[in-house]
Every structure is written in C-alpha cells, then in structure tokens.
Amino acid sequence: SHVVPLNRKKAKAWIRCILEVVKSEPITVKKDNEYGYDPGDEQHYENTIRLVTGRKHQVRAQLASLGAPIIRDTLYEPIGGMTLDMLNSGGETAMIMDMAIETCRVPQQPIGLQAHAILFGGIKGRAGTPWWGDGSGN
To answer: pLDDT per residue over 86-129, tens digit each?
Structure first.
C-alpha cells in the first residue's frame, strides 16, 4: 500500500520504504544463458536502486507493485502491479489479488537481483557481472 495506515498500532509497525532509481537502462538478456532463463520478447531493464529507508526486501516488493518485478522473483512477480489497497476494494479486484497471492512462492532459482557494491568497515567491495547480462547494459 502507498498510504500510511490510519490505525496507530498498525502504523507503528509499518516501515516506510523510500527508494531512488539512480539508473535504468534497457538490456538484452541472451536466450542461451547458462541459467535457462527465457527472456521472451519482453524488454528488460537493469536498474541501479538506492534504498533510502526501509528494509532490503522492500526493494523487491516496491518494484513489483510498480509493475516492474525482478526477473524470476516468484515471491513478488505474481502480484506485480498490485497494491494492498486492492484487498480493501473487495469484489472481483480483491478476488484477483487473492488468486495471485496464492501463486507466490519462494524463488528456487537465482533472481535478477544483485548488490553491485558494499561498504563495510571502510572497505568497499564490488560485484562481478550479474548472471543476466554481460555488463555492457545492452
């Protein structure tokens, strides 16, 4: 949901997620990649996201709610483009969301999410090329 809960008790447990899309570039995912992922005919994007507030898993949830789920993210992809507000709307919309939620599963294969850099104790580490691309961004 994009709205802060009105109930004070629920709002206290609610952690707002603010993220910044620093970069978003179209990429081509090779059909013959070693992970067996079939990109189909859909356009894919490689994004650099900066988490401003919230927890790390919220990046996955937020991107899915915006209709831009992460490759192979079987936990959040089924509910892509949906928000919790839809549950409260009732009727057919809530039923569609319930059916989508039932298909959510913990991913069994690598998803298209990778931290590209980490800073720990003053030492910065950088990740290699992700499985879905050759690092060129195209």
So the answer is: 767 778 888 888 888 899 999 998 888 888 777 788 899 888 88
Closest among 59, 17, 27 to 129, alpha carbons compared:
27
Give whole-number Cα distances, 49 to 53, 57, 69, 86, in Å. Answer: 12, 12, 13, 26
Q: Give the list of residues 6+ apart from residue 117 with CB closer than 8 angstroms, or none.
A: 124, 125, 126, 127
Is 0.85 surpassed by the pTM of this model? Answer: no
Residues paired with residue 1 on neighbouring β-strands, in sequence order? none
Q: How far is CA 136 from CA 9, 26, 85, 112, in A?
A: 47, 10, 38, 16
CA distance 42 to 49: 21
21 contacts: CB under 8 Å, gap ≥ 6? 47, 48, 49
Tokens of 32: 């013959």
Cα separation, 94 vs 97, whole angstroms: 5
Nearest CA to 111 out of 96, 132, 129, 127 is that of 132
